[in-house]
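Q: Trace token order:
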Amino acid sequence: MIVFVALLIGLLTNLLREKPVPIAYASKEARLDRAVQEISQRSKPTPFPGFPEVMTLAQFSDFVGNRRGIVLDARYRIEHQLAHVPGALSLSREDFAEAYAALKGQLDRSQPIVIYCDGNDCEDSKLVQKALRDLGYSQVAVFKGGWSEWTAARKPKEASR
């Protein structure tokens, strides 16, 4: 009986919190979708004609080198602070709602955006790409090779202060 009462009190306390702890596991994609829904209810824009969905290392190097738009790092914030592509802004998939709120003023829907994460096997950049499209950004590409390909090619990097 004591265990039942304690469980009931715990569940009720959780429900009364501003951000209740989820009782059931939600996938990365589901958590990101929920964060995007909380930010905006906009419909999905159509992709910008002529802007690629995925960029190669050569395309991404040109994009970064010639400052053709915004570069976003979808890795964890601490990874971004340690080292990132020059000029990249941190928009972690893990804490998307907070990171987006902090960056919203720097993001321009008319500018092209390229997102990267750890490498070919990392899905975070694709999830952030989808989230940004759901928020009304149409020129959003992914550098699939990510941080691992960038560093393997001995490209420049910088760290946050």
Residues 2-16 form the longest helix (15 residues).
